[in-house]
Amino acid sequence: xxxxxxxxxxxxxxxxxxxxxxxxxxxxxxxxxxxxxxxxxxxxxxxxxxxxxxxxxxxxxxxxxxxxxxxxxxxxxxxxxxxxxxxxxxxxxxxxxxxxxxxxxxxxxxxxxxxxxxxxxxxxxxxxxxxxxxxxxxxxxxxxxxxxxxxxxxxxxxxxxxxxxxxxxxxxxxxxxxxxxxxxxxxxxxxxxxxxxxxxxxxxxxxxxxxxxxxxxxxxxxxxxxxxxxxxxxxxxxxxxxxxxxxxxxxxxxxxxxxxxxxxxxxxxxxxxxxxxxxxxxxxxxxxxxxxxxxxxxxxxxxxxxxxxxxxxxxxxxxxxxxxxxxxxxxxxxxxxxxxxxxxxxxxxxxxxxxxxxxxxxxxxxxxxxxxxxxxxxxxxxxxxxxxxxxxxxxxxxxxxxxxxxxxxxxxxxxxxxxxxxxxxxxxxxxxxxxxxxxxxxxxxxxxx
Length: 449
Known about the structure:
Elements: E1 26-27, E2 33-37, E3 47-48, E4 55-56, E5 61-64, E6 73-74, E7 79-88, E8 94-102, H1 123-132, H2 145-148, E9 159-163, H3 173-180, H4 182-195, E10 200-206, H5 210-220, E11 226-231, H6 240-248, E12 263-267, H7 268-280, E13 286-292, E14 300-305, H8 310-316, E15 326-329, E16 336-337, E17 351-355, H9 359-365, H10 375-379, H11 386-394, H12 398-403, H13 414-418, H14 425-448
Parallel strand pairs: 1-14, 9-10, 9-12, 10-11, 13-17
Antiparallel strand pairs: 2-8, 3-5, 4-7, 5-6, 7-8, 13-14, 15-16, 15-17
């Protein structure tokens, strides 16, 4: 664990982790009315199993997976279904959602919390539990974990990488999980190794989390199939492609899956959720989030029942200061600005970041023309040429944008961060990629007619 592994290029933004890194996780109670969107993941929306007037229990499946790439949704409280209606989510979309009135009794399903013996399970049974528990990538992507760990070439997977990098500034929830629940992470990893028997597990952790590295290294000693890897503190070290390259030297592009290179990557928080599902029969109904920023009264890490509103959550954490000018869901590099806090916490929610300055708005006021300095090129972890890509987008030439590697952009924000002209390159590339996907979908539709 002596040598720090890393990837090429990247940036070193202000960490901001000092606000909350030393604050232990505390539980947040559920709200009187809980909202469960049917789209909380990549893939098809879940399909409701309940209707208005039904009584539901804590841990009850209220919506089933709507396809192969989909996951079910569970209630985190007991109560009565008030209805199924459109509700606003963080992305700004109106999403079909199940609304449950919490009765405050928290009556659970019959087998909720039942201790399972993994030694008596087959690999297929473990996969079935993970799929049925509604677990997705809790690092932010939201891809169904049950699908990820079931590649067609399962016997060719020789690396199971556990992402403990948490490179996004300000966020500290994964760090606290490693400090407070390391055994649960390791047991979750062991469940995954039962599914991927030829894989060796490596837990990648940045070296700015030395105490977490020490804790996880000691805990990993219980199983010779699990090791830790010290990573250089650099953004975006936790990006899937960068993490795979740093640990294995293998390169992934937009047309490949990690499994194509013999790798499966799972977040530390997802490992905790896997532990709860496989060993304790608890589906994904809660997650740990970070409430932080210079405009938060009481920065902290919290264990949150899915379905509560962000406004209620912030209120439970002491609220924001009068100086707040911007709320972000996620971190400052890849997070999403929030126009309202009256949206539910879902599986992919990671934080509420309250800031007293709006860096994006400030940058827009001083944006100038590109000075061709090449700094965007020097920091791009995908070794792209953002300067040229930006020129294509401004000219409306998305076809050329695609030809010079536009779809390889991981939207990490390094180019925008490094640009002295303050050009919103990352936002431009998001729009360009969306246009390319739309054109590809139209072309595919025409072929099918």
